[in-house]
Amino acid sequence: MAHFHAHAHGRATGRILLASLGITLAFVAVEAVAGVRSGSLALLSDAGHNFTDAFGLGLAAAGFYFAARPGDQLRTFGYQRMGVLAAFLNALLLVILSGGLLWESYQRLLHPEPVSEGIMLWVASLGILVNVAIAWSIGGHHGHDLNLRAAWIHQIGDAASCVGIIIGAAIIHYTGWLQIDPILSAVIALVIVWTAWDIFKDSLNILLEGLPKGLQLAEVTSGIRGVSGVIDVHDLHIWNLGAEERALSCHVLIEDVPPSASESILRDVNCVLQERFAIHHTTIQFEHTRCALADISCAPGRKAY
Question: What domains lie within the chain, and their CATH numbers?
Answer without folding.
Answer: 2-207 (1.20.1510.10), 217-304 (3.30.70.1350)
